[in-house]
Design goal:
Strand content: 15-25%
Number of strands: 30
Structural class: alpha/beta
Largest sheet: 7 strands, mixed
Radius of gyration: 36 Å
Helix content: 40-55%
Length: 890
RNA sequence: GGUCGUGUAGCUCAGUUGGUUUAGAGCACCACGUUGACAUCGUGGGGGUCGGCGGUUCAAGUCCGUUCGCGACCACCA
């Protein structure tokens, strides 16, 4: 018999159970099960280099609730965990921590070792001195450094997940840079290539000058910033002039046309003529275009290559030349205006003016050109401050520029309808989130740019021939064969070539880029299902059941995953998407590192217990943002404590260590009150089950919790004295059996939410020595059948007899109220009790009267139950007369 | 400007297809209480014209229209 402790020590219990669950292997996925027996979760791989905060705990708990429910239903669970370690945040951290920077042209140094502890120490010291010397290393070495760092970050996350009680199968863990993921990602690329879905092209692409890389549409975001309107005077050839208001005067040298709306009478006379740009004195056409709005600025605007996406659009449709003015590093490029096809009246002057801008960063160049324009008398008035929204890379510091570069694209614009159909085939929870993806797909403007000019990521499995003149042949890439995957073209020679031929005329070169991190993380279902190496396994897990994620990455992660599943399997990646809301700080702002309002979760787990933190997470409705409120942890802890104490009471009423599991069955439940309890529990179980089936665990918790508190406050008090009876009567047996059954139900209802305390209590008297019921978490989810007493009783319970419970609690409550108002203790005896109510209620009350009287210390009272009008708004009119003294009942 | 969501007690939130004549919970607040599971507790109490206006209905927190506030996403951003 297990000794039951007086106090619950959550830290000790959490450690013990986390270990035990691992030893038992109860979270292990069984690959031999069929698809129908399996419940597969496409859990989000967190960016390990990001900050860890309570929002993580919140959303990961949500998936675990659904998983635990499905496990109790008997499903074989595939609940993996991945780490997204590709991408810019990792690179940035590695550069800082190790003081290195990647030079992809360097050869791999296989003796280079990265000592993390030392590096972090150095990093801390180095920062103080402000030294920024960065040693150059090869790409492979750089990747090794990234891996060394991320594996440390992963340990921190894993530790937290385990403590939180996430029922992850850790043998299914993956990292987006590991061999299998690289292979999957490269195979995906090859498959898309074979299907004609990828192409590469030299196109103007959104570019972050800070990171020096292309950026996809989904990663762009608007920022409201301060800007200035500059009124510039343009002359018209043959006479006349007009004013253009621009926020970007530094792009003047890239102006290739000016446009006004076709209906704009002010400019109609100029259409077809040529304008002369100030300073550069370039001749540019004056054209009509629908996209110019007459009432904005002066109604006429510059088309530059490139100021914004509208310029790109316009340039693409026109046959105008391209004058790239901004370099990849965000500096103004040197340009020779003598060169064609640019016509300047005075190329020397243009060159002289431009020479003062070349090499400057955009902001500096803007200040400089304002000076030049002012001197030239072409700046009309002073710049006027305005606020305007500008596109940024979501992680970037500078406004995006458009830079022409060779990029890889996935062709998706022609497939909007098919993608929409797939998105609609998936069930979204909450349902309104579906419109977000629909709008996103509908509004797509660009194909998906998947190449990044970075180092830490999955390389393209592609090489190019170099002809005898040393020019790469981009049009006929050499593609890796599947057996080579994963391949690093930087260190492995192209098929048919020797390593010695790298980079020389007649030889080959590797594609220098890596894939965007989303190109790999969009394959998480395929990674987990072994699409790349085990088709049979793939069929057993794909499409998956649920994708839990938050709403801000619908347009990226969810969308790209849908794209890939469609491309590779012409299928949906999962049946359900479960969207969690955000955690907001008390000012209703999203918690994020940049805002500095991040709250870390570890100490809450220590202070309040993992169950308490999970309780807080579990309360949130799906998709709804939640304000962080520490007091809810307290509510969770309170519930845990209550469960502990109530269970101690119930178990004290049983006798030996197998009683809970085997002896006190529903056949003993004969008393009306106890039967009514079971009827209540039955409907609670039905409600909670339905809520879980709707993917609304918060509602299931609410149901279980309400029922449980009522059980403690009312039922336990009503039945206590009967259960304490010295003699073994049917009433006493009925009480014990009902208490036992109720507790077994509650423990299983709470198990998904509060895994530690429910397992702890389960182990006292209910756990079997083997099989499913060894752990509460593999025990069968409670069913209505367990609580059904037979057809006759069921009918009984639903009609008149359902009331006995409510009638009993109401009268008990009235007795309590009288005592409280009289400032007497609750065990103060009652001398007289008069109850008046409708016939059916009076009848119901009579059936449970003994329990009520005992619970209200009214067993010696003079009692009268009459038919008649109840009190207003109540079931009964109750008149309580308390005894004169505590010892007398007269 | 477009779309979606949201507005219920001081705070955080429930309220399922309109229907227990008087809208719930937790926290906070007030009062009382050493009852054999529980003082990390128990019992009881005060507190809301359900954002505003209009409509449908025997009946509206719930449905419709309109308007205001808040949040998010998208578009524009010369």
């Amino acid at each position: 018999m297990i000794e039951i402790p007086k106090k619950y020590k959550h830290r000790e219990a959490e450690e013990r159970w986390a270990r035990q669950w691992e030893d038992w292997g109860i979270y292990r996925y069984d690959p031999s099960c069929t698809r129908e027996q399996t419940f597969a979760v496409d859990s989000p791989p967190p960016t390990v280099s990001g900050s860890l905060h309570v929002g993580h705990v919140f959303s990961y708990t949500h998936q675990d609730l659904l998983v635990r429910y499905q496990r109790m239903l008997g499903k074989n669970i595939a609940y993996p965990m991945g780490w997204d370690d590709n991408g810019l945040p990792t690179e940035r951290r590695v550069q800082n921590v190790f003081g290195i920077k990647c030079n992809p042209h360097l050869p791999y140094d296989k003796d280079m070792v990265f000592n993390l502890g030392e590096a972090i120490e150095k990093d801390a010291g180095g920062k103080k001195k402000g030294t920024k010397e960065q040693k150059e290393v090869s790409r492979l070495n750089f990747i090794e450094a990234c891996a060394a760092l991320t594996s440390e970050d992963e340990k921190v996350f894993e530790g937290l997940w385990r403590h939180l009680g996430l029922s992850i199968d850790w043998t299914l863990a993956y990292a987006t840079i590991d061999e299998r993921c690289r292979k999957t990602s490269q195979k995906s690329f090859l498959d898309m290539m074979a299907k004609g879905r990828v192409y590469h092209a030299e196109l103007p692409t959104a570019w972050d000058t800070g990171f020096g890389t292309a950026v996809a549409q989904a990663e762009m975001t608007d920022k409201e910033i301060d800007g200035k309107f500059h009124d510039l005077q343009f002359d018209v050839e043959g006479g006349g002039h007009f004013i253009i208001s621009t926020t970007r005067p530094e792009l003047l040298g890239a102006c290739i046309a000016v446009v006004a709306h076709p209906s704009d009478e002010r400019y109609q006379p100029y259409f077809g003529k040529t304008a002369v740009t100030p300073l550069y004195k370039a001749h540019v056409p004056i054209l009509a275009s629908e996209h110019a709005e007459p009432d904005k600025g002066t109604g006429i605007l510059m088309v530059c290559t490139f100021g914004d996406s509208a310029d790109v659009e316009y340039w693409r449709k026109s046959n105008l030349p391209l004058r790239q003015l901004i370099g990849r590093d965000g500096r103004i490029l040197p340009v020779d205006y003598h060169a064609e096809p640019f016509q300047s009246e005075d190329p020397d002057a243009a060159n002289a003016a431009h020479a003062q801008l070349a090499g400057l960063f955009v902001k500096q160049a803007r200040a400089k050109i304002v000076e030049l324009l002012r001197e030239a008398g072409k700046l009309i008035g002073e710049p006027r401050p305005i606020k305007h929204a500008v596109k940024y890379y979501e992680k970037g510091e500078f406004p995006l520029e458009f830079v022409t570069a060779r990029q890889w694209f996935v062709r998706i614009l022609d497939a909007k309808e098919e993608l929409l159909a797939k998105a609609r085939q998936i069930k979204w929870h909450p349902e309104f989130m579906r419109t977000r993806i629909e709008h996103w797909i509908d509004g797509l403007q660009y194909d998906w740019c998947i190449s990044r000019q970075r180092f830490f990521g999955v390389p393209f499995p592609v090489w190019y021939r170099i002809d005898d003149n040393g020019t790469p042949d981009y049009e006929h890439p050499i593609v890796a064969t599947e057996d080579m995957l994963p391949v690093d073209p930087m260190s492995q020679a192209a098929p048919g070539y020797e390593e010695s031929q790298r980079g020389i005329p007649g030889g080959f070169m590797a594609d220098p880029d890596v894939m965007d991190t989303w190109a790999t993380s969009s394959l998480t279902p395929q990674i987990v299902s072994h699409w790349a190496d085990d088709p049979e396994q793939h069929a057993k897990l794909f499409p998956m059941d649920i994708r839990p994620q938050s709403h801000e990455i619908i347009r990226t992660w969810a969308f790209y995953t849908i794209v890939k599943a469609w491309l590779h399997d012409n299928d949906i990646p999962w049946k359900h998407v479960i969207i969690s809301g955000w955690i907001l700080d008390p000012d209703r702002k999203k918690m994020s590192k940049s805002k500095g309002n991040v709250i870390t979760p570890e100490h809450y787990l220590d202070d309040y217990s993992a169950d308490a933190v999970r309780y807080w997470s579990s309360r949130a409705r799906l998709g709804a943002d939640t304000i962080f409120e520490e007091q809810l942890f307290d509510a969770g802890r309170k519930l845990t404590t209550k469960l502990f104490n109530a269970s101690r009471f119930v178990i004290s009423q049983l006798d030996s260590d197998t009683d809970g599991r085997e002896r006190w069955t529903k056949e003993y439940v004969t008393e009306p009150l106890d039967r009514a309890l079971l009827a209540r529990l039955r409907s609670a179980v039905i409600d909670a089950t339905e809520a879980f089936n709707r993917f609304e665990p918060a509602s299931a918790l609410q149901t279980a919790e309400n029922e449980f508190w009522d059980f403690c406050d009312n039922y336990v008090e009503l039945v206590k004295r009967r259960s304490y009876e010295a003699e073994d009567t049917p009433g006493r047996r009925s009480a014990k059996a009902a208490l036992n059954i109720a507790l077994r139900i509650f423990l299983r209802l709470f198990a998904p939410f509060l895994p530690y305390i429910s397992e702890e209590i389960w182990s006292w008297r209910f756990a079997a020595s083997a099989g499913r019921e060894r752990s509460v978490h593999t025990s069968p989810w409670p069913t209505a059948e367990e609580l059904t007493l037979g057809q006759a009783e069921e009918g009984e319970a639903d009609n008149g007899h359902g009331n006995v419970y409510v009638c009993a609690t109401e009268v008990l409550s009235q007795i309590r109220q009288s005592k409280t108002l009289a400032q007497k203790s609750l065990r103060w005896p009652v001398a007289k009790l008069l109850v008046q109510g409708e016939a059916k209620d009076a009848e119901a009350l009579k059936q449970v009267l003994t329990d009520v009287l005992l619970a209200g210390s009214a067993e010696n009272a003079e009692v009268a139950i009459k038919e008649g009008q109840p009190a207003e708004g109540a079931r009964f009119m109750v008149d309580v007369t308390l005894a004169e003294s505590e010892n007398s009942a007269e």
